[in-house]
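Methods — Computational structure assignment.
A single polypeptide chain was analysed. Its primary sequence is given first, followed by the predicted tertiary structure written as structure tokens.
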Amino acid sequence: MDFNDFFGPTGTEGTRGMRIATGLLGAVAGGAVGWGSAVLLEASSVAWGVIGTLLGGFFGAAFSFAIIVGLLMGLGVVLFVVASLYLGGS
């Protein structure tokens, strides 16, 4: 990791826009879980806000991981096709 992973136009999970989108998706999902839990269980909003924040971080990380796995699968397919075409694979 370097400076560009955090502040540059691209990083480990893709472009800055994609990193912002995954963070927002995780924040909204975690906030909804925390708020819904506080309403349903009639618990302290602060406690469930903390739990929602943790879950939001998890959802954001899981979504980023899914993107990376998808990109690696696409790369594998491309490598298989290239190997089949140019190296005479079966």
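Note: The first strand starts at residue 10 and ends at 11.
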